[in-house]
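Q: Hi! First time doing this. I have a protein sequence and I read that you can turn it into a structure. Is that right? Here it is:
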Amino acid sequence: GGDGEAPRKKKKKKKKPALDEEGGAAAADDDVDDGDKKPAAKKKKKKKKPVDQSDGQIEAHSDQVQQEQDNYYGGAAVAAVAAASTAGAYQQDSNGDDMGAERKKKEDDYNASYYDGNDGDVEMAMKNNGGGYDEAYCFEADTEIMAEIQQDNTVQVDESGGIQAFVAETIEIDGDDVGIIKSDAEIEAEEKRKYVKYFGAAVCCLVVVVVAVAVPLTLKFTKNVVNKTRYVSDPPTEPPSQMPSIMPSGQPTSTKFMEIVDFLMPLSGNSLKVQGSPQYKAAMWMESGDMMPNSRGGTGLSIDDAGFTQRYIMALFYYAMDGDNWVQKQGWLSEKSECEWFGIDGFSAGCGSDGIGGCIKRSDFEGDYNKVCRLSMGRLNNLFGEFPKEMGQLEQMRYVEIQDDWLIGTIPTELGRGWRKLHTFLIGGNVMHGGIPSSFANNEFLGTVFIDRNNFNGTWPTVFDTLKNLEWLDAEGNDFTGTLSPGIGELKSLRIFNINNNSISGNLPDTFDESNLMEDFEVAYNKFSSTLPESLGKAKFLKDLRASGNQISGGIPVSYYNLKNLEELYLDNNRMVGELPQTYEPFYDGLQELSVHSNMGMKGRFPVENFEKTLRVKVIELHNTEMTGQISENICGRLDPNLSYTRLKTITADCEKIKCSCCTCYKDGKIESTYP
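A: Yes, that's right. Below is the predicted 3D structure, encoded as structure tokens:
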């Protein structure tokens, strides 16, 4: 065209197949002139190689239409559209004339087909030729290079000579800007590869997350479970490095530490080499943590100092009993003398500078003045751990109190050997087990022992029979078994004996005499099966007798009638028989609490008149017995809540047997009514 004429797209001719007489597509003749065939335009102006068609098909040719590069996308986006050439078959009849004319007319009509282009788009239309062909083929070319329809560069025609329709869902542009149509199988395979890649990446991320969470949790919850045993290495043989390490090593190998370990080895053994043990921590503190000034102008004691071992033992006690969590720990592991630490200091002479603090009088002291002689940690101070056996070295120990805390383990034998001057040992309300070591036997000073509310077990310790100065023994609430030896009744100084709530069986000791000082004799809720000891009636100071919950038989011994100081008598839940004293006896003078219920062998009249004469009675429990009688209104009047010292708090009876208007009434062992 001229300079002012818009460029036109090159026309592509389509040959329409000729029709046979029946309107079907005629097969192409082998004599068709090669000149009628239009080669398709290829990218880079390469010719497509024609492919012969067999039996009624002619060759199809493809043209590509090249467009301007799409500047809107910066020339980067290229799309290809297949350009198809319509192949028409010319059929010649035997005459060749009429058919030739008709063929000429159709060809002219076909060539009259027009093309319109708009912004790089090409539209190709074929007019109706009246022979049943009104098909139109429209193609769009949005890219610079049009894609090939098939890899073999040919257009497939069907049996009627028409182009086979197909839909390409995916067209990929290769490196030569040639459109590649992928088959469904290829697309599916590529998608599978993508899914496998994405799934693998997701699994890797999940593994990383699980490891990141699991490792810290594992370290946290196994920190206090796994105990790693590490030992102090031998003294270093290589010269030290020129640069100091940033953090101290796990196992100190300083000369001083090794000297401390060697010095304390006979006392603490290999525990000193176990990192994290109380002995190891105490030795470490003595080596570098003790800030107490020494005589050499520095801090900390050396193994040559007289108080080195004692200070080590008290530091060991701190670590063994979880000292960091104590409620009261004033002064512990400070620069002060151990004699000034909480629980060690006191208000009398001994183990204190210039005679202040401690528990030992100067006149009674032998040897070094600054010796630990008391350890009074009180109650509920949150101590937790086992007694270190090394504490047996504190031979001046007189007083130990650690109650209602968390002492565990057993009592070390070394304590009995070393604490020969101990007079008070209070460890009630802990969780210790085992027995009482025989090493405590024949201790001439031990007078008060509280081992109640623990888990001590085994047979009853006969070591108590040897403590001639024992005054108070409280072993309630343990698991002792076996029997009591007669030696308990022979302890002249014993005033309080409490073994309630154990499993001791056999006979109660019957070896008391007039010289005994027994005030409280409590053996309730065991398995004793004897009678009440007759000789106990000689205990003129007896105030409290508790024998409930056993299998004791017989009646109340007559010798008990003279126990004028008796205030509490609990004999319930046994197999006792007989009756209460009918005459007024000293027995009733001070009686405040009487419980004989659940002894079906108890019978006779309840001597109500004897209780009217005493104003101190607080408890009367008579139910589940065979006793009879009547409770007077005078006694019922003592239930008045406005009364104080003389108020009667509890009165029970089988009201069908004992008439009572104010009792809690029982019937067949169950409460029937209450008052008020």
